[in-house]
## 1
Amino acid sequence: MSFWHHLPQPIIGLAPMDGVTDIAFRHVIATGACPERSATKSKGRPDVIFTEFTNVHDICQGRVMGWEPLRYTHGQHPIVAQLYGKEPLLFYQAAHVVSELGFDGLDINMGCPSKNVASSGCGAGLIRTPELALDIMAATERGLHDWADGQTLAEAGLKPGIVEKVRMARAAQDHPAPPRAALPLSVKTRLGYDSVIIKEWSACLAQGQPQVISIHGRTLKQMYRGDADWDAIAEAAAQIRQQGILVLGNGDIGSLNECIARILASEVDGILIGRAALGNPWIFHGKDVIREAVRARAQYPVPEPAVSREDRFDMILKHAHTFERFHDVSRFPRMRKHLGWYCSGFPHAAALRADMVKTNNSGDVGQLLREYVSRHVAPDVETLTAAPA
Ligand SMILES: Cc1cc2nc3c(=O)[nH]c(=O)nc-3n(C[C@H](O)[C@H](O)[C@H](O)COP(=O)(O)O)c2cc1C
C-alpha cells in the first residue's frame, strides 16, 4: 500500500504543468493561500502535487537547468516526480535519482502532445509504441525496486558527478534520507494518439502494473482543442479500476461544481486540476466540500469560493517573494505570467495585469499594488504588509 491508498477520496490533485508548477508555485499552493485573512483562511492544498515533467536524459547527464523541476520543499509532500523520455535504461537510472531525492511517487508522462516531445517518440508519442511503453514501465519499476533493495546510484550506472549532484541537492534542501521503500509508479496519458483508443491503451498500460493512471480526456491530435471527453474517461475508468488501479480524470475542470459532477458521473477515484489553478490556488480550498457532496451524491450546486481582492493581492506578493526565495531574480520574467493570471475578477484588473507583466522583481510588484490601493481603494490606507514567504 503506497501513499496513494492513504489519500482521502476522491483525490483532488494538482496536475503537472511545464513552466508553471515550479517549486515556487507548488510552495504557495502547498502552504495554502493567505493565512492572515479570514475569508479564505481554511487550509486548502491539493491532496497530491506533481512536478513539471523532467527529461530522463537531463537527469542522467546531470544538466543543471534540467534538474530544476526536481526541487521541492518539505511542505509539498506528497509530491510525485514526473519524468519523460524513451530510453528504458535512463528511466531505470532516473528512478534511483527520484527515490534518493525523497519523492513520494514517480509518474511517467505518456501524454505530452508538444512537437518536440511527441514526435521524437516521448510523451504521447509512446501511445504509438506500446511495447516500448511497457519496457519503460518495467525498467522504471526495476529501478525503484533495486534502489529500495539497497542498490546505490553508482551501482545503477550513474556517473560520479551525478551521484555527487544528488547528494548536494539533498543537502541543499535539507531533505532527510528517505526510507528504502519502492515508490509507487503511475502514468499520465491521453485518450489516444489520433483517435480514442483509451480502453485498449489502458488495458496495455495495466500490464505494467502502475498504481495510478491519470487520463486527460483528449487525444494527442486534439492538443487542447475541443472539450475533454469525460464519457471516454468514465468507460476506461470502469475497466481499469477492476484491476485495482486508481484512476484520476483530468481535463477542463474549472469549478467545484464541475469537479463534483465529473466525479459522480465518471466514478473516477479522483481528479487532477490544471489550468483552473492558474492564478487561483484557492480552488483547492473546496476539497472537503467536493468530498462531502460526492459522498452524499449531491445534485445541488455548492457555493464556489469567493476570493477577495485583498486575498489576491496578498497572494500576488507572497508568490513574488516565494519566487525570489527559490530563483535568482534575473529569472523573474518567468513569474510574470502568474502575476497576470491573478489579476482578474476585480475593478481595473486588466490595467493592473498590463503593468504586472512588465515587473522585474517583488519590489516592482509591491509598488504596483500600493499604487493600485492608493488610487482605487483608500488613498489613506497603509496596507500590503505581507511578509516575505
Ligand atoms: C502550460 C501547461 C503545461 C503542461 N505541462 C505538462 C507536463 O509537464 N506534464 C503533463 O503530464 N501534463 C502537462 N500539461 C497538461 C496538464 O497536466 C493537463 O493534463 C491539461 O492541462 C488538462 O487539464 P486542465 O484542463 O485541468 O488544465 C500541461 C498543461 C499546460 C496548460
## 2
Amino acid sequence: MLKVRLLGSGSGGNCTLVSSGDCHILIDCGLNARRISHGLREAGIRPDHLSGILISHEHRDHIAGLPVFLKSAPVPVFLSPGTAAGTALNGTEAPAEHFQVGQPFAIGPLEVIPFAVSHDAVDPCGFIIRCRGVQLAHVTDLGCMTELVRQRIRQSHCLVIESNHDEEMLKIGPYPWPLKQRVLSRVGHLSNRDLGRFLAEDFDGAAATIVLAHLSRKNNHPEIARQNVRDALAERASARADAFEIIVADQDRPTPLITID
Ligand SMILES: [Zn+2]
Ligand SMILES: [Zn+2]
C-alpha cells in the first residue's frame, strides 16, 4: 500500500509526501520549511523520521524549502549529480545520495525509478515509486509527453501529472512574450491540451486516481483543468470517465490523502 498527499503544488512551490508503513519520503521540497513540517506533523510524522527527500530538478519551486528544512531534520537527499550541482545543501549535515536518472534504487521498501523528462533544467526527472505491487507515477515540469514518459508511467495505479496551463489563457494572459514562449516550448510545462491528448489516446486506464499538479495560477483554472481531463477520459473507447477519481492539487492547501492498494 502507498499513501500519497501533495502538500502543495504549483509554480510557488511543490512538495509531495509518499508513505508506506513507517517509511515516509518527500518528492521535492519547494514549499516553505515550516509548512512542510506542519504537513508532516498533521500526518503524525516527525520531520527527522523521514527516510529521504527526492529532488526532481534544481528549479526554485522544487528546492526552496530545503536548506531550512534540513537544518532541523538532516535527512538524506536523493538527487542526480546534475541536479546536485544547482542545489545548495551546504551548511547542513544532510547526506546527499546521488542517483543516475534511469537507474532504479531503493529507499526502505520503496523502489524508486527516476526517468528523464523534457524540461529546461540540468537533469530533470519524474519518478515511479513501487511498493508491494502498487505503483505511483509522479511527473511534473515537462514540456511534452515523450515516448519515454508514456512508457514509464504505464501500469501506474495513481498518476500525479502536470496540467500546467490552458494554451489560450496563456497566449492572452499577462506573461511577457519570452516567458510565454518558454512555457509553451518542448522544455517548458505541459498544457491541459497535451495532457488531454495523452489521456484520450494513450493512457492505459490503470490509474484509478489522477492528480492534476503544477497548475499555473494565472494561465489556468482548476475547473478548466478538471473538465479538460473529464472530456479526454470520455473520449476513451474502453472506459467510463466517471470510473476515474480526478483530484486537482492546490498551491496553498494539501490534497486529501490518497490510498493506493
Ligand atoms: Zn516547477
Ligand atoms: Zn521546473
